[in-house]
Design brief:
- This protein is an alpha/beta fold.
- It has a single domain, classed as Indigoidine synthase domain (Indigoidine synthase fold, 3-Layer(aba) Sandwich).
- Strand 3 and strand 4 form a beta hairpin.
- The relative contact order is 0.15.
- The structure holds pseudouridine-5'-monophosphate (PSU) and manganese (II) ion.
- Pseudouridine-5'-monophosphate (PSU) binds next to helix 2, helix 8 and helix 12.
Length: about 300
């Protein structure tokens, strides 16, 4: 594993570090907006007092804390493998490039000693999962890996009820940031209750601090609603999702290609509006995630 000097130093000194994934860059957004967004997200984290660590695999080597040039390459290069936990050894053994999903990023972050990870949305139970068993490895990773994931909730392309039920079974707390209802990525709310409505980054840090003191294994999911002015209209997004899903079925797209296909199609149908919302919400998550990491490091230092 290659850990950048900046990230290594920050970890040694107990400074707040926030991990970022690369699937969102290579498979979640088109070039060049993906690179712009990734670099802006890093800046938001720095502005809010933490050190960003973008994680991906370059020529079979996991990199923790990529350079701007490396991020640019992730945005441009074709044929990068989408790597979740099960793909890690394949990618590394074959010295490939790999873009890490939430599950693989959590796992590598944990190995590097990073506790916080900001992304857009997590994977979950796809619609129809009760029959197909198509459930993202992200949920399993949240169950066992001690990393807090700050996101805008699972996307409404998923079955949100099944996703929330699985998280309950696995013992993963869902914390809402200033919300009683779990946000649904493009829109700020759903009909699902969160386990706790946290009013400040400190309240969230305190829960994680307590959990760690109790040696309770597993992740925490922090869900931050996209601010209303940047959210999608629920009718418009739901109709785009359902059209995209129909086309996916017609084309026979399956497995790990589903999420990237849906994101791309929804962006086309909404004429770029969904991508704008996506970019905005990640930056918003980065702000909250960095603040939680800062509060947490103060708690650790007893400040
Ligand atoms: N949410 C986004 N964009 C993304 C993803 C989620 O807004 O690109 C990616 C994340 O990397 C997540 C993955 O871990 O999709 C889930 O893929 P799957 O559903 O195949 O498990
Ligand atoms: Mn799947």
């Amino acid at each position: 594993m290659i850990i950048s000097k900046k990230v290594q130093e920050a970890l040694e000194k107990g400074f707040p570090v926030v991990a970022l994934e690369t699937t969102i860059i290579s498979h979640g957004m088109p070039y060049p907006k993906n690179v712009e967004c990734a670099l802006q997200v890093e800046n938001v984290i720095i502005e809010n007092g933490a050190i960003p660590a973008t994680i991906g695999i370059i020529n079979g080597e996991p990199v923790i804390g990529m350079s701007h040039e490396e991020i640019e390459l992730f945005g441009k290069k074709e044929g990068i493998r989408k790597v979740s936990r099960r793909d890690l050894a394949i990618c590394i053994a074959n010295k490939e490039w790999g873009a890490t999903t939430v599950s693989a990023t959590m796992l590598l972050a944990k190995k590097a000693g990073i506790q916080f990870f900001v992304t857009g949305g997590i994977g979950g139970a796809q619609k129809g999962a009760e029959k197909t068993y198509d459930i993202s490895a992200d949920l399993e990773e949240l169950a066992k890996t001690d990393v807090t994931v700050i996101c805008a909730g699972p996307k409404a392309i998923l079955d949100l009820n099944i996703t929330a039920e699985i998280l309950e079974t696995k013992g993963v707390p869902i914390i809402g940031y200033n919300t009683d209802k779990m946000p649904a990525f493009f829109t700020p709310t759903s009909n699902i209750n969160v386990d706790f409505n946290a009013r400040s980054p400190l309240e969230i840090a305190n829960i994680i601090y307590t959990k760690n003191n109790m040696n309770l294994e597993g992740g925490v999911l922090v869900t931050v609603p996209v601010p209303k002015e940047f959210a999608m209209d629920e009718k418009i997004i739901n109709s785009a999702i359902s059209d995209a899903q129909k086309e996916m079925e017609k084309k026979g797209i399956k497995g790990k290609d589903e999420t990237p296909f849906l994101l791309k199609k929804i962006n086309e149908i909404t004429e770029g509006k969904s991508l704008e919302t996506n970019i905005y919400l990640i930056k918003n998550n980065a702000k909250i995630g960095a603040k939680v990491a800062v509060e947490y490091s103060k708690l650790i230092k007893g400040e």
